[in-house]
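Holo prediction. Input below; ligand is uridine-5'-diphosphate.
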Amino acid sequence: MPESPSGSTLDLSLVIPVYNEEANLPLLWPEIREVLDPTGLRYEIVFVDDGSRDRSAEAIRGFRERDPRVRLVRLKVNSGESAATDAGFKAARGRWIVTMDADLQNDPHDIPALLGHLDRWDAVTGWRTRREDPWIRKISSRIANWVRNTISGDAIQDSGCTFRAFRRECLRGLTLYRGFHRFIPTLLRMQGFRVLEVPVNHRPRRFGESKYGIANRAFSAFQDLLVVRWMAERHLRYQVIEDLGGEGREG
Ligand code: UDP
Ligand code: MG
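Structure of the complex:
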């Protein structure tokens, strides 16, 4: 089990990509503590500042001064949500990892329920059954999910929801590319991991702006989808049934 610098084992790492979320962070941090402190879990919060141009990093440094469980991983320039998520995965030390947005749209009160499934599942991904976004976003996302499932052959209701929980083992062999945060559940299933989709609460964005519009999402996400389909088709599937004399092989 991974060890924190103090020598104690960590149960949970929260990985939170942050891009210009200064108004949301001061509300998010206490809400997370309110939910997680009573659970007795040993946890860290890895905020990944993805090149914010506002005062997000300063806010996180302020939390850190008051609570050493807060960590700040800061990217040099804005590199995208997948890059920020990847940096968070690499920094995370917990045996469970939860990803969530920094904009208060995901509700920290769902975290214990997500973790509750990790005894039987390798990963759990949220499904925003009552999504609180503008209607145009809801419709375009419904179309996107249909296209994704039809082309990838997967069945994920809400691949745009990045509120998820993972066992640490699933992330070890995961290689992300730009835009691939949407496909993490599909990629994990491809590798044989068991992924469950469960309803989660969703709240309207009160402060700051969504980083995605229809155009910057639809075109690049469609290209990504073709790559994911290709990966699914070409995924190596084989079983070794004999390995005679392989004892001295270098690991
Ligand atoms: N985000 C990021 N880098 C980016 C774009 C977004 O770290 O280049 C973060 C953002 O701050 C938020 C999360 O990723 O915490 C999801 O972004 P957003 O809320 O804009 O997406 P939406 O909920 O509108 O799909
Ligand atoms: Mg959001």
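The pocket of magnesium ion (ligand 2) is lined by residues 101, 103, 105, 205, 210 (CB under 6 Å). That is the main takeaway for now.
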